[in-house]
Amino acid sequence: MFFRRDKNRNEAQVENYRETEVRQSEASNEASQTYSESKTAEVSAEAALPSEESAKINKQELEEKIIQMLKTCYDPEIPVDIFELGLIYEIKIDDKANVNIKMTLTSPACPVAGSLPGEVEMKIKSISEIKNVSIELVWNPPWDRDMMSDVAKIELGMY
Questions:
Q1: Which CATH architecture has domain 52-155?
Q2: Cα separation, 79 vs 107, whole angstroms
Q3: What predicted TM-score, i.e. pTM, was given to this entire model?
């Protein structure tokens, strides 16, 4: 009888142990699932945010598109595009894809002074990724032939 009671007690202990083990396993699975869902959400949120490096790459790609578009604008008196002529002093792109371009003309009396900045603005706005464009016409430093690229100088026979 003593043996049987101990056997029953052992069986009850084993059953309690198994129930405890099952509860702990279920709790562990729930915690693991919650943790996994939390990590998945974190990874998804991180993936949705552009990193600084990818933002830089996007700005670089956007700047290259802007330059390619600028190379389609010409001063009618000179058969070289305005980028190679050195008329573009600065291209700034902010994090929201707004573009500010500082440019000049070959002289303040340039016949396209009224139309060329507008043409540049219109062409840059045609790039789909760009939100807004502002063109700032500056006269300092004054443009001179040294600002032309080697490509422009070769095209004009200055080399």
A1: 2-Layer Sandwich (3.30)
A2: 16
A3: 0.64
